[in-house]
Design brief:
Strand order of the largest sheet: 1-7-6-5-4-2-3
Oligomer: single chain
Order of helices and strands: HEHEHEHEHEEHEHHHHHEEHHEHH
Helix content: 40-55%
Bound molecules: pyridoxal-5'-phosphate
CATH architecture of one domain: Alpha-Beta Complex
Shape: globular
Amino acid sequence: MRTLTAFPVLSPSDFLGSSAPYGFPVSQTSKVSYWYGARTAIRQGLVQIGIRPGDRVLVPAYACGSEVDTLLKCGCVLDYYRILPDMSPDLTHVVDLCSCPARAIFVINYFGFPQPMDTIMAVARAQGLLVIEDNAHGLFSADEQGRPLGSVGDLAVMSFTKALPLPDGGALVVNRSVEPQEVLVQRQRPHPLRVAGQMKSLIEFALARRYPTLVRSVKRLVLDPAIRVVKTIEGQAKASPAVAHAQAREWAFFEFKAERGSWTMSACSQYLLRRGLPHDVVVQRRRRNYLTVLGALQEGLRVRPLYRTFPAGCSPLFFPILAVELAGLRQYLTARGIESHRFGFFHESIPTKGFLFEESLKEQVLGLPLHQGLGDEDMVYLAGLLNDWNMNRVATAA
Ligand SMILES: Cc1ncc(COP(=O)(O)O)c(C=O)c1O
């Protein structure tokens, strides 16, 4: 069976490729600093631009949770704004919220699709707000005018681990000049065991994709029994119920850990970032994959693309869709080798009352794979499955 992973899989060429010239943000040496991930970059960005504990920040009610957790743990007071059906901020609501003084607006380029930054900047300037552009999904993506995402907001953050097979990594771009004496940047190298653990997971994942039977057997016959023995010895065998445990693990993945607030990008990720496929090849492949699915997708009632347009320059992280029976669709796709990605772990501080549209997005949006390691045949396979689902042909197609 064909397997489509949600994220790119590490391959030997990622280590051995020649150092390629990179575009934004790597090319912007004077504005960019490298951190352990986007969460650390947000924390560092707040310090650099002078947003202090107690400052009010306006955040979209459709958010992943990890950015919200970071802002809250940095002491920001958050207020949530609505988003419109085209996924852009509801700026009328933003202006209403400004009747109470606010310091900044936080904007997310969902799935690497550009937000209308010129309009957002104009409104923000009129209201005296700083603009933080969360471009965790949009590494290498650009807007209609060809401007790289993350190059317009006062601050922008990137997450490298979503678009590239790296153990860690993110960037902070400071597009607004900051008084140097105000900035006290702390830097700490990431814990080597943490980086090694992430690297091990990437390698295991890559091996499991390439040699599934061998890896399954080693896990069943060697690793699982060994882990059971260790857990029994440590008395953890009867730990918390499985569901609570899974939720805690999911949360651990999304939360902001204060001890990582000064961690820089590891040397391993710095190395890998400059190898692998050239930036423009990644962009072309992602765009081509998006267009292949879009072109093959038939209209139906159960699934439709989240975005109505596909701007020139956009290099998406996933093919985002709206699906009315999301759980069933995920199960159907998983059984056919397709991994999918739900957008985040919705933070409990995000209100639900008055945010009907954002609530429906949480229930219906799914990201489907289109990364640079996939090609035309993969995309045709994916679109075929979606069409079967859309046309209720699943029973016969199964
Ligand atoms: C919109 C958004 N912002 C920030 C982050 C945090 O990224 P990182 O895992 O690199 O800290 C994520 C993902 O978790 C995200 O989806």
